[in-house]
Amino acid sequence: MKRRAVESSILFVSVVKWVFLAACIGIIVGLSTTLFLKALNFSISLAALYPYYYLLLPLALFASAAIVKYLAPEAEGHGTEKIIGAVHKNDGKINPMVVPIKLAATVITIGMGGSAGKEGPAAQIGAALASIFSDLLRFDGNDRKKLVICGISAGFSTVFGTPIAGALFGIEVLFVGSMMYEVLLPSFVAGIVGFQVSSSLGLTYFYSPLKFIPAFSSLFFLKVCAAGIFFGLVSLVMIEVLHLFDRMGSRINIWSPLKGLLGGSALVILTFMFSTRYLGLGIETIEGALKGDTVPSGAFLIKILYTAITLNFGGTGGSITPLFFVGATAGSTFGSLFGLDLGTFAAIGMVSVLAGTSNTPISASIMSIELFGPEVAPYAAVACIISFLMTGHRSINPTQVLVISKSSQLAVPHGKEVGGSCRVEYRPRPKSVIGRISGAMKKRAGKGKRGQ
User: 2-200: what fold?
Assistant: First the structure.
C-alpha cells in the first residue's frame, strides 16, 4: 500500500511539473510564431506591390545564404530536419542564434518568392527557445529533449491551427514506426496552449470542411486506395528530387552565397517559363484546389522542382507548406483523370503526401479531421497509410530513426537513420507448414521415381 502511495505521489508531481513546463513552452512558442508569421505576412504583402518582385530572388537567396553561413549554420535548409538531428544527436541542444537568423532568413527567402514553408522555421524557432528555456532552468539532457519536442509540437500547431495533429507530429516525426509516449502529455499541452495564444493574438487559420463527400461504395473505396498508391509515388518523387538537389548542391564546391545567386537565377528563369503560381507559399493555389478549381496537371512536379532549388541553393524555410501544394495539386490531377470530385481528392492528397514524405500517417490523418471535417477521415486515413507504406524506408527528413520494417520481407537496420547507413535488403518469406510438407512430399516422390 505504501509503495502504491509513493508511486501515485511521484506520478502526480510529474504530471503537474510537465503540464506547467509545457504550458510555458506553449506560451513562448505562441508568441514567437505570431511574431514570425506577422513579419512574414508583411514581407509577402510588401513584395506583392511590385509585379516583378521575384527578380530580386538571386539577391534574396544570396543574403539568406550569407547570414546563415556566418551567423548560424544550423539554420540552413528546412527546420524540421535540423531539430530531429538535434534531438537524436545532441539531447536537443540548439544554438540560440538560430532564433533571429532563422526568422530573418526565412522572411527574406519566402518574401521574395522562394518556394519554402513556414512550419519548419516556426518549429525550429520554438525548439530553440525551448532549448534556451531548459538551459536557464539547468535541466538535464533528457528533460531538455522533452521540452524541445514540445517546441516542435507547439510550432506545428500554431502555424497551421491544428493542435492535435501538431502535438502528434512532434512525437511521430522523430522515428519511423514509433512514438515517444512519455512526451505525449506535454506535447498536447504545448500544442493546445500555443494555438490558443496565437489565436488570441490575431492569427487566423484555414479551415475548410468539405461540402461534398461521395457515399461509400466498394468502387469508391478502391479509388481511394489507388489514390493512396499515386500519392505514395508522388511522395517518393519529392523525396528523391530533394535529395538529388542536395547532392548536387554539395558537389558544387563554391562559396554558399554564390550558390544562392545561382539558385535564385534558376528560379527567375523558371518563373518566366511557367508563372508566379509556384513562388512562395502557394496558398492561393492550395485553397483553389481544395475548392475544386482546376489546376495545371503538372503543377505538383513543377512545385517540387522550385522547392528543391530553393532549399538546396541558398534559401531557408520549411518543407511542409510546399508538400501541401504538391499534395493538393496532385490530388486535383488524380481527380480530373478519373472524373472524381476535385476538392475531395485534393484534401486527401494534401495529407497523404505529408504522411508519405515525413512518415507521419497518424498525425496526417488527424490533420484531415481538423482541417476538413470528420466525414473525410476514413478515406484520408487509408490513403495516408498506403502513401506511408509506398515511400518505403525513405524520408524527407534523413535523420529520422528507423524502428520498424514496413514489410516482413524487407530487412532494415533498426536504430539507424533513414539517410545514413540504412541498407534495405530482401528477406524471403519462410514457407508455411503446408508449404514445407508439400515440398517434402514432392522430394520423396522424386526419389521414388529415380529408385524405380
Answer: Clc chloride channel (1.10.3080)
